[in-house]
Design goal:
By secondary structure, this protein is of the alpha/beta class. It is 44% helix and 23% strand. It is built from twelve helices and ten strands. The strands form two sheets. It has an eight-stranded mixed sheet. Strands 1-2 form a two-stranded antiparallel sheet. Helix 1 packs across helix 2, helix 1 crosses helix 3 and helix 1 crosses helix 4. The longest helix is centred in the first third of the chain and has 28 residues. The C terminus is likely disordered.
Length: 308
Amino acid sequence: MTLQQLQYFLMAIQHGSFSAAADAMHLAQPSLSEQIRKLEGELGAPLFARGGRGLELTDAGRLLRPHAERTLAAADEAASSVREVAKLEGGTLSFGTFGNAPYYLLSDLVEDFRSRHPNVRVRLTGLNSSTVADSVREGRLEAGLIVLPIDARGLDVRPVAEDETVFMSRDPERLKEPMTIERLQDRPLILYDARYGWDDPTRRTLLDRAQRAGVELEPDIEVEYVEAALELCARGFGDTIGARSIAVGRGFAKRLGSVPFDPPLTDTFAFIHRRNAHLSPATRAFMALAEKRIVKLIGDRAVRPERI
C-alpha cells in the first residue's frame, strides 16, 4: 500500500469515476485504474462497485476511506514540518555550550540567529564541556561548542579557535614575569567550575602540566562561575586563571593584571556532533554564526586544525 494509491482512491471517490479523477490529476486513466486494482489486490477486497451510475464504495471502501484521509493528512503534515525546518521557518535548535560561553558570545549570537530565523525555537544548555560531549553522544543534543580535551568517542570534533589562558592577580609584584607551573603552586589559587573540578578541560590541561612537573595544585577557593572567581581575585582573596578574552571583555582589566604562562597555555574551542550524523539546517546555520563570532572575538588566535 502506497500513499499514491490512497491518493488515487480518494480522488476517484471525489470525482465519481476513474477517468474524471485521472483528468483532474493529469494522468492516463489506465495508470490510475491499475494502481487502484493493485490496492484492492493487496487488501483482498474490492473498494468500488462499478455500476451504470458510476463508482460506488463497497463496505471495504467505506472502511478504508477515513483511514486513507487520516494517513494522507499525516503525511502532508510531516512533509510540511520538514519543509519548515529545511527552510528555517520552524523547528527547534538544540545545542550545548561550555559553561563560560555566555561570557564569549551567547547573547549576541542568539540575537543574531533569531533576527535571521525568528520562527526557529532556540534551546541552549550551558554545561561543562565533558557533559556536553556526553549529551551529544547520547543524542540529547544535536551538536555543541566545547573546550578540548573531551572524550571524543563516537563524535566528530572540529577545532575552530584558540584563546590564551593567563594568570591573573591584582598584586603587581606577582605579574612581573610569565607564570610557571612551579610558582603557581605557591599562589593562593581561586578556580572556577567547582562542580566538575579537575574534569573541566581547562583545569585538566593545567593539572597535566603540574603532574609532568611533579607539582601539586590545590585551590584555596573553588566557585562555579568564572565571573565569581575574577571578582574574588579583584577583591584580593587570591589569584586565578582564565581566558584573556573573558578577562578583558568583562571589565576586569582595570582591576586585575595578567601575564601569560611559561610555556603558553591555551584553550581550544571545537564544534562536536555525532559521527556521520546529518545536521539540521538550523544547527548548521547556528554553528556558522557561532564560528564567525568566536573567530572575530579571539582574532588572530583563530585556528583551522584538522578534524580529530
